[in-house]
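Person: Please comment on this record:
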Amino acid sequence: MNTAHPPVLVVGAGPVGLVAALTLLQNGISVRIIDKDPHPRIGQRGTGIWPRSRELYNFLGVSEVISLAKPAPPIRFYKPGTLESLEDAVLVPHVEPTPAIPFNGHRAMGQQLLDVILRRHLEKFSCSVEMGTELRSFEQSDEGVTAVLAKNGISETFDTKWIIGADGAQSIVRKQLGLTFLGETRDDAHAVTGDIRLTGVGLDRLYWHRFGNWKEQGLSLRPADEIGDDGWQFFLFGHELDLTKIAESEKLVFETITSLMPTEISFNKLVWMSYFKPNIRMVNKFSEGRVFVAGDAAHPTGGQGLNSGVQDAFNLGWKLALVQKGLADKSLLETYSAERLPVISEMLGVTTSILDKTMASKEPQIGRNSILFMLGINCRFSTIVLDEFVTSVEKPINAYGVLDEGHLEAGDRAPDAPNMLQVGRAEPGATTLFSLYRPWYHTILVFAPSLADATPILGALETYDKSVVRSAVVLPSSASVTSVVSPADLVLVDQEGHAYSAYLMEAGQTKVFVIRPDGVVGAIVHGTEGVKKYFSKILVQI
């Protein structure tokens, strides 16, 4: 890893920039990551973490997000002008984890804590965020990018190979690239949001409290223990409130909350606040030459913006790493924009529809569609995925679909399977398929009735670089494994049939699944020739 002169400059150190940097570092690519703010941002901000993002953090080994993120509390609505409960509802109905979906359901974690966790993971690679460092401009050529940076009024010229702009809705990277920024700013759905410390008589911290409505005036208070044992994330909203004025005054925030919450309140501290207007926009493309945009820099939006942003970064990271290592052609990077544009376009349609329904009603609007779990997001349409079991009929792109566990194509999310028995080791042990998938290599799963059936396929894979391609044989529970002499990195017995079920395998069948470093099924093929055909579009030929 060239730590002296990093080949990638990441601009912006929110979760999107941090995930981009961490993905590259785990791929052995050193990065320089900067942020124009002098101090790390505070505030809960976007708190929702959906299942597809929880899987991403699992693949990155960021286990703290899995363990510390909490289910959202039930939302308590009140009769107007009273502390009398109207109804209790849940943001998202509870769903149990399953063998194929171990990280099911919605979780919440403040962005301030998420940033801290991700920065700690960067530090394991001796990489830290350079705060108070601003990108002023850049120029690119076929060979690289020259960036002009500024810190404490001192200018610096920095030569690098690539730039990733994760610098938010006002992105200097996007503006300098001149990307079209299509969409609208919603003036009818603005709010004041922030973190506050207060106590109120009868205000139970087991609930997310909601007073009033969007049509008139309203207040939302979600308990946030990360702020303190009296901490809340608040939203003030409604057409009858002068929100731009409220956002300029701590006194007005306190007064407005007092007017909307009919109980005795003791204010401790207004920690942070911001005036928020939904920006429903997206770029026409995610890159130009050696410079990329991700997250709010490409598509600022409420609802799923942060989740979509870290998924942008994860999609880009492994591709950029292969190109920088000289293992893939630069054309691979064109698939970043091609795969993410349809997803974001459809995502904006879904979240805008939810916003419209919320805005149009005085009544509580709760019950999120399972499409928001993001498990059905796919790139079946991508030029670099290969499925030999699907007839090539022109189908409409449905990139932001609902998960159908009875159907699996190349381009879909790869399912998990637990209790896979590892054989051929001194001490056989159980593992999961998700524990095999990591951001720095492809995983080839050879499902076969026996080791003998898998061996010819595995022999042909030995030409691939082991640092970026690994293999595992998946045998049915009925397989008797007496001796394990196999060119595969792992031999697994599907003891409980979870893998055969999730990957829709039939008894006696031989089939190969190539899992990309981002946890997407890159290929579903019959055997060796299919694997070679898939990698011919990914890796430079040996």
Remarks:
- The chain has a mean pLDDT of 93.
